[in-house]
Write a structure and sequence with these properties.
The structure holds 2 protein chains of 2 kinds.
Chain A: H1 9-12, H2 17-30, H3 34-43, E1 46-50, E2 53-54, E3 57-58, E4 62-66
Antiparallel strand pairs in A: 1-4, 2-3
Chain B: H1 5-18, H2 33-42, H3 52-55, E1 70-75, E2 80-87, E3 89-94, E4 97-101, E5 108-112, E6 115-121, E7 124-130, E8 133-137, E9 142-147, E10 150-152, H4 158-174, H5 178-199
Parallel strand pairs in B: 1-9
Antiparallel strand pairs in B: 1-2, 3-4, 3-6, 5-8, 6-7, 7-10, 8-9
The chains are: A alpha+beta, B alpha+beta.
Chain lengths: 70, 200
């Protein structure tokens, strides 16, 4: 049952709490002074190794690096 | 058709009444004595395995008198900033306003907005800037503070904060969709919070 209570503006715009809190966290990280900023941003970086499977065998994996969106 | 209805209704109300609040902390024993007993009956030559309850300290029971200190657990996804630290008071940035938490506070769950968390220990005040999170205050004067990102206030760069504030103010004026507007509004909120944290 949907609640009729007042919702925050970001919820009304279709954002989830996770999206909202991640945006907030990123903005804070981007405003840090230098040694801390690089440290905080590198902590959030994610690497994926992706390989497609053809005929039951994996192809050469490719590395994809995602840093959190601004 | 409704033969069971009265019984079912009675059961739901009864179970609801007896259900404890999530903030109430059950006093759990360190080891399950029944389990140990049955284990030694079945396998007497092997020591019983350790269960989570023997590794994790049980939550302290709610004392009858209010303790002098507040126990604070402050955790981030990548670090444990404060773990079971005894302090005098914390002030958390709840969405409803700054909320001071002293020992003996009523059990509450508060959503946090970007702002300052100050930890008061005698004359020492430690200030962190939180991005967002939750504070769970338990009846036994234990407060759990959970945040996505938290930094000491002096790690923030005032120049970058001013620049971000200007950027997002401009973005809000040029935003067309609801989502863009909300993003710009979040930007303004976070940067103004950081700005007042640095200046104030």
């Amino acid at each position: 049952m949907a609640s009729n209570a007042a919702v925050p503006f970001w919820r009304a715009a279709g954002m989830t709490y996770i999206t909202y809190s991640n945006i907030c966290a990123n903005l804070v990280r981007n405003c840090l002074k230098e040694p801390y900023k690089t440290e905080a941003l590198s902590r959030e970086r994610v690497h994926f190794s992706i390989s497609k499977w053809t005929d039951g065998k994996p192809e050469k994996p490719t590395i994809r690096s995602d840093s959190p969106a601004e | 058709m409704f033969r069971q209805a009265s019984r079912l209704l009675a059961r739901t109300t009864a179970s609801r009444r007896s259900r404890a609040f999530s903030s109430d902390v059950p006093a759990t024993p360190a080891q399950d004595s029944n389990f140990i007993e049955s284990w030694t009956k079945v396998i007497p030559n092997i020591d019983p395995p350790k269960t989570p309850s023997s590794f994790m300290a049980p939550r302290p029971a709610t004392p009858s008198s209010i303790p002098t200190k507040l126990t604070v657990n402050f955790v981030l996804p990548y670090a444990s900033e404060l773990s079971g630290k005894e302090v005098d008071m914390v002030i958390v940035p709840a969405t409803t306003g700054q909320m001071g938490v002293l020992p003996g506070h009523v059990p509450t769950i508060a959503e946090l907005k970007p702002g300052i968390l100050s930890v008061h220990e005698g004359n020492d005040v430690t200030k962190y800037f939180l991005s967002s999170g939750f504070a769970l205050i338990h009846a036994n004067s234990v407060a759990d503070i959970i945040a996505v990102e938290a930094v000491p206030v002096d790690h923030l760069d005032p120049a970058l904060v001013q620049k971000g504030l200007a950027d997002f103010t401009q973005k809000l004026n040029s935003a067309t969709t609801d989502l863009d507007k909300a993003e710009a509004q979040i930007g303004i909120d976070v940067h103004s919070a950081m700005n007042s944290a640095i200046t104030g």
